[in-house]
Design a protein that fits this description.
This protein is α/β, with parallel strands linked by helices. The chain contains 14 helices and 17 strands.
């Protein structure tokens, strides 16, 4: 393993990892793809803000209001730097990645959208993929029903890769936007963004990435990626729930209509009309998730202090160990890439003759191993592989080889129980 990465020291930063479970079982947390655990620095930063600095932002002309606003906007600066955004004004705080994706979908076909790039209707097309989380499927389905646009999608190969064999036939001059996942929450697959983007650019389409499973785990630079929009969520990046991020190219955000109406997203209001604040504030109606944003800023500080390159290397080594060890379990089938080429630290699998719900329950009850079971909000992908559900183990900077070994011991035990 990578001797330059002190995982045991890092684990001490996460208080929940030291707790015991009923019966004296240690906690083996392998569900970070669902939601990551939080370091003490995030917990304490949020506590400190609530206890010493909390007030509403952008409104109050007093000391607490100024301190709270400063902390909230400082979090925006931190996130912008973390993902390489050219401007802090390109960072929109949302409540999660789902809201960020919906925000962009809402701009298309909206009568207020005057920019031709957001005008959409019958004859136009949207392209997604078969491996998407429901959050990157349902908003586009709703848009298609509302506007008469055609929804199309990339299929997935048997080894869990995006099938680009019909890229030119799928992404055409009729395509208005391509919205795909950067890294699959089920397969672990890291998609070939550059190739898809090049085709989108040739036909004049916009491109969006759901980066909820990539931003927390590897260096992501929006300028280098070259896409138009990117969404991720705080709770998967060692931050709190209730806070997400939409990054968009500044001129596109300025061209988009407001998503929600209310306080602070306005410039001026009359009884018969309103004018709106510039981005990002025109997309942040009402009291925002203040403490959550501050917590996300602390999470970004924490991850940056360790180094995203180091985190990515550690997860690659852990994932390699997991793929090797799981390969020794009889009857186990990995759904997705079985090697480390263009894949991240999420491994989903089936165990022959045993339902994933039973697998997850026994792993938890007997070994304290926390995994996720089900279709992971990606039912169409499971239908494509002809399975109702999978067991998913997902790793993070605090995952150890010993935890992978505990998972494998647990799976051998599951097989014995059902023998």
């Amino acid at each position: 393993m990578n001797t330059g990465f002190d995982v045991e020291r890092i684990r001490k930063d996460f208080p929940i990892l030291s707790r015991g479970l009923p019966g004296g079982r240690p906690l083996v947390y392998l569900d970070s793809g669902n939601s990551a655990q939080k370091p003490t620095s995030v917990i304490e930063t949020m506590r400190e803000h609530l206890s010493s600095h909390y007030a509403n932002v952008g409104r109050a002309m007093h000391t607490l209001g100024a301190e709270s606003t400063e902390a909230y906007e400082a979090a925006r600066d931190k996130v912008a730097a973390f993902i390489g955004a050219p401007s802090r004004d390109e960072i929109v705080f949302t409540k999660n990645a789902s809201e960020a994706l919906n925000l962009v979908a809402y701009a298309f076909g909206n009568p207020m959208s005057e920019d031709p790039r957001f005008r959409i209707g019958p004859g136009d097309e949207i392209v997604i993929s078969e491996m998407e989380h429901h959050s990157n499927i349902v908003p586009w389905q709703l848009l298609a029903r509302r506007t008469g646009v055609t929804l199309r999608w990339f299929s997935v190969t048997d080894d869990g890769r995006l099938d680009l064999s019909d890229l030119d036939e799928l992404v055409t001059e009729r395509t208005k936007i391509v919205s795909i996942v950067h890294q699959s929450n089920v397969l672990g697959t890291v998609n070939p963004v550059a190739e898809v983007l090049a085709r989108a650019r040739r036909v004049g389409a916009l491109m969006m990435l759901d980066a909820s499973q990539s931003v927390p785990h590897k260096p992501v630079d929006v300028a280098a990626l070259g896409v138009d929009f990117l969404a991720f969520t705080g709770h998967k990046a060692a931050g709190p729930s209730g806070i997400g991020v939409l990054w968009g190219r500044g001129e596109l955000l300025e061209a988009m209509p407001p998503f929600l109406g209310g306080g602070e997203m306005i410039e001026a209001v009359w009884m018969d009309r309103s004018t709106y604040a510039p981005a990002p504030h025109k997309f942040e109606a009402g009291t925002p998730p203040i403490v959550e944003a501050v917590g996300l800023g602390a999470a970004v500080d924490y991850l940056s202090g360790i180094g995203m390159d180091a985190i990515a290397r550690h997860e690659r080594e852990i994932t390699g160990h997991a793929l090797d060890a799981l390969g020794e379990v009889p009857g186990l089938r990995v759904i997705g890439p079985e090697n480390l080429d263009d894949r991240g630290g999420t491994v989903s699998f089936t165990l022959e003759g045993i339902h994933p719900h039973d697998v997850g329950q026994i792993l938890d009850d007997a070994f304290g191993v926390a995994v996720r079971v089900g279709h992971h909000c990606a039912r169409p992908l499971h239908l494509r592989f002809g399975i109702p559900a999978t067991t998913r183990a997902s790793f993070y900077l605090y995952t150890t080889p010993a935890e992978i070994d505990a998972l494998v011991r647990g799976l051998h035990h599951v097989r014995k129980v059902f023998a």
